[in-house]
Amino acid sequence: MTKNKMVGMLTLRLPADIENRLTYLAQATGRNKSFYAKEAILTHLENLEDNYPAEKDYKQFKSSNENSLPLEEVMKEYGLES
Is the pTM of this model over 0.70? Predict the structure, then answer.
């Protein structure tokens, strides 16, 4: 499969102020609005993909009533003292 092969399309409504900012950025840089919308989605999607599992694990840990150790103790135990 080609790296940039189009596989889907998304239509969304934006508030006027965001649409205006996107239009201005596209005009100022000579790129199209789709380029910047895709870049914004990819960046935020990566953050969401990273954060969601961590938040889920944290909530599970908090509800388990397990004890935690201070970072300094863990580092000392594994010989990672600075």
Answer: no
